[in-house]
Design a protein that fits this description.
- This is Type I restriction-modification system.
- GO terms for molecular function: type I site-specific deoxyribonuclease activity.
- Keywords: Hydrolase.
- It is an enzyme of class 3 (hydrolase).
- With about 80 residues, the protein is mainly α.
- The protein has two domains: about 35 residues, no CATH class; about 45 residues.
- Helix content is about 55%, strand content about 0%.
- It contains three helices and no strands.
- About 0% of the residues are buried.
Length: about 80
């Protein structure tokens, strides 16, 4: 691993520890080599939104917008509300 890669890994570890210990996030493990690994975990996001009472139609629309944004690499531009 390069020095840059080593520094990145140290930073990721530090941030993960902060999110878990300070913000009470659940750590789901290292999914780097997991089959079907994606930037947007639609199953987890759908379940989370549904538990909070978000309508199914809105969840589907949101997932479509996120997929478009991820595919185009446009980030915030693609996520603007219409």
């Amino acid at each position: 691993m390069s020095r840059v890669g080593q520094k990145e890994r140290v930073t990721q570890t530090r941030l993960r520890k902060f999110f878990v210990e300070q913000l009470d996030y659940d750590y789901l493990g290292d999914w780097e080599y997991r089959e079907g690994n994606r930037n947007i975990e639609t199953g987890l996001l759908t379940d989370w939104l549904a538990k909070r009472g978000v309508a199914e139609a809105l969840i589907k629309r949101t997932l479509r917008k996120l997929d478009v944004a991820a595919a185009l690499g446009e980030g915030k531009k693609a996520l603007r509300c219409e």
